[in-house]
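User: Sequence in, structure out. Go.
Assistant: Echoing your sequence, followed by the structure tokens.
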Amino acid sequence: MKILFYTSLGMGLDIVWYYSSKTYIKWLYFTGVLTSILNYSMDNKEYYKVLDRTVMTVGGCIDLYYIVYNNLDGEYIFFLILSISCYFLSKLTKVVFFHVCAHYFISILHCKILKLSM
């Protein structure tokens, strides 16, 4: 699905845009973008799908920890929940639009977190 590949590339913009951030979270997000791009562009789909989903799960837990640990307001948790909800809706309904929305909302969250860490 080309649209998911392109939205994965788009998710990388938050890393490029806030490149001056010198935090570990930047590298976590970069890993997520990389595994997403591999998932949507490589032939060995099952391996990269498992890798991408593993990184997404670990990343989601770290995002949640970061939000709670830093006592961030509800807007941050809202984007995390919205992204996760859209992802599962895409799997349940097979509607690509929800998956694109998941990429969009997690990118917003990551931009907001990266902006805080600058």
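User: And one key feature?
Assistant: The CA atoms of residues 83 and 106 lie 6 Å apart.
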